[in-house]
């Protein structure tokens, strides 16, 4: 697997990923209008991701299978807040056919040191629906600690959904 910064060059691949994984991702993501899946909208979001990444306001990565070049998933670190907080939110998804092989663990294991050492952030927050067992196991395995449950936290698939709040602190900032 190769991780690449998201940019407009991946428009066709990301469009195919969204379309073929629409039902798989729907329970865990905001309700999407049909416009979300149009190729021009995908290109526009990728341009914005590239700008956000270039300016250090986010890190948007895409996961590609080495040999086929197929886009397998994405992971991103957004909502970067500087000042005394130095924190961001992590988000991730992988194709249904690629689940359960440790690929997202591998991707995040590579990306997180970049967020801490190069972007210089102190805290990565990642929140998941209690029903999302895979996501919870993945975050626990990576060392994210549970901080509580936020009621009615995000509007997911059309309804306000409770979320488990977790975070990982930059180990270099701990005594
Ligand atoms: C959450 C998600 C990114 C995990 O990706 P993944 O590549 O399958 O994750 P990994 O294989 O690296 O690790 C998943 C964990 O779930 C476990 N797992 C594998 N198959 C499982 C299954 N059928 N049921 C429950 N857990 C399972 C793995 O054993 C692993 O835990 P471990 O490290 O303790 O062994 C992926 O399931 C996904 O894209 N889901 C839909 C979108 C989503 O939920 N995004 C996150 C929103 S918070």
Task: Summarize the structure in words.
The chain has helices spanning 11-20, 22-25, 39-54, 103-118, 133-141; strands at 2-5, 59-64, 71-81, 87-94, 123-128, 145-156, 159-169. It is α+β, with helices and mostly antiparallel strands and 175 residues long. Strands 1-2-3-4-5-7-6 form a seven-stranded mixed β-sheet, sandwiched between helices. A hairpin with a 2-residue loop joins β6 and β7. The protein is globular, with a radius of gyration of 16 Å. The structure holds coenzyme A. Coenzyme A is lined by residues 25, 28, 92-94, 99-105, 128, 132-135, 137-138, 141.
Write the layout of secondary structure elements.
Layout: E1 2-5, H1 11-20, H2 22-25, H3 39-54, E2 59-64, E3 71-81, E4 87-94, H4 103-118, E5 123-128, H5 133-141, E6 145-156, E7 159-169
Parallel strand pairs: 4-5
Antiparallel strand pairs: 1-2, 2-3, 3-4, 5-7, 6-7
Helix pairs in contact: 1-3
Bound molecules: coenzyme A.
* Distance N to C terminus: 34 Å
Secondary-structure element sequence? Answer: EHHHEEEHEHEE
Helix run count = 5
Q: By helix and strand content, what is the structural category?
A: alpha+beta
Can you tell me the residue ranges where pLDDT is under 50 for at least 5 consecutive residues?
none
Order of adjacent strands in the largest pleated sheet: 1-2-3-4-5-7-6
Kindly state the number of beta strands: 7
Q: What CATH architecture do you see?
A: 3-Layer(aba) Sandwich
Question: Considering DSSP H and I runs of 4 or more, what fraction of the residues is helical?
Answer: 25-40%
- Report the C-alpha radius of gyration, rounded: 16 Å
